[in-house]
Structure formats: structure tokens, C-alpha cells
Amino acid sequence: MILSLQQGLAQDGFKVSLVKLCHWFEMPRRTVYYRSTKAPPKVQEHFVKPIKAMIEENPSFGYRTVAHLLGFNKNTVQRVFQLKGWQVRKRPVGFRPRIQALPSVAKAPDERWATDLCRVWTGRDGWASLALVIDCYSRELLGWHLSRSGRSKTAEAALEQALIARYGCLGTRSC
Q1: Quick one: which of 76, 51, 49 has its CA closest to 66?
Q2: What are the angstrom distances between the C-alpha of 66 and each of 41, 49, 62, 80, 89?
Q3: Cα–Cα distance, 141 to 128 (Å, whole number)
Q4: What domain count does the chain have?
Q5: Does any domain span residue 161?
Q6: What is the pTM of this model?
Q7: Which of 65, 81, 124, 168 has a CB 3.0–4.6 Å from the CB of 61, allowing a cystine?
Q8: Structural domain harbouring 19
Q9: Are 55 and 61 within 8 A, CB to CB?
Q10: Which of 63, 65, 68, 66 is nearest to 83 (CA)?
Q11: Are 162 and 122 contained in the same domain?
Q12: 102: in domain
């Protein structure tokens, strides 16, 4: 780039030294003169054929599995994978969020309730399920239910207790 610029300036009648051009563009002169001597990587065909056959037979195998089954060095197999473009990237684990997550804040009591279900060790009786209902504004525990089974009836009973504790009745009819 600098050399072509220097030649272009010379054609226009301006003689500028390479030292000045490198100084103006804040580029070391060595960068202008440098030519890479490294040869492009070569792939040995006696490794490629069995690796390719193994991948076509079992496309889900990674380079470690292929190296072990063929008795090759895993670094060699990985290099062949990279140079031939057979490298499989690790798939992301879990689901991608579909919507942007925004913080949900309750601005008044009874605006939003939250439920949670956890398992509690009860000693002699073993594990039990505990369902909780809290008010997200005041963080007040409104209802709970403990049962030996973790069925939906446990959460339903906790919600019923919360409604009775807060409003004195269940449902929408006046109490």
C-alpha cells in the first residue's frame, strides 16, 4: 500500500521518501518490506481418506472420537478437520430467548403474586413438596401448602389459602 502510494506520488512529480511516508502514516518500515515466508499448511492424504470415511459413516463424531477409533493423534485429526472445513462448532446449550427480558416490578399490593414449588426433607417421612404464594410488592407470604406428592393440587391448595387469607373467600362472588 505504501509502495504503491509512493509510486503514484512519483508519477505526479512528487518525490517522497519511504521513511517520510511511514512516519506520516505511523507505520513501521519493516511492515512495508515484510514478506511472509510461511508456506500454506499441507494436508497429508493418508490421514484424510480414513478420517473422511469415518465422518461420512458417523457424522456426529467429533475429532476426539475419530482420532481414538482410528488410532491417530487427536491434534493431527483436529488439524485435518480445520483445514478441510469439517470442524463442527459446539451447539449452544438450552433455548434462546424469544423476547427481550424486562424486569417486572409490582407497583402496588395484590398487583402480582408469584408461586414457587420446592422439595423439603422432612426427616422420617422423606421428601415433601412445599408450595408458596407471595405478593411481589410487599414480599409477604400469602399462602402455603405442604404435601407428600408434588401434584398440581398442592399449588392449588396454596393459592386457595392465599385467596382466603387476603380476601376472606374464594372466587369472585362477594363474601
Answers
A1: 51
A2: 21, 12, 6, 11, 16
A3: 19
A4: 3
A5: yes
A6: 0.42
A7: 65
A8: 2-33
A9: yes
A10: 63
A11: yes
A12: no
If you search the block for the grid coordinates 403474586, which residue do you land on?
113
Q: What is the pLDDT of residues 23-68, one digit of tens each?
A: 888 888 888 888 888 888 888 899 999 999 988 888 778 889 999 9
Which segments of the chain are extended strands (E)? 113-121, 127-135, 141-147
Q: Are 129 and 116 in contact (CB under 8 A)?
A: no
Burial class (CB in 10 A: 0-12, 13-18, 19+), 173: exposed
d(Cα 116, Cα 25) in Å, to the nearest integer? Answer: 63
| All cell numbers assigned to 52 | 473422511
Residue 54 CA to residue 29 CA, distance in Å, equals 49
119 and 151 share a domain? yes
Average pLDDT over residues 91-109: 73
- Report phi then psi at 144, rounded to 5: -155, 160
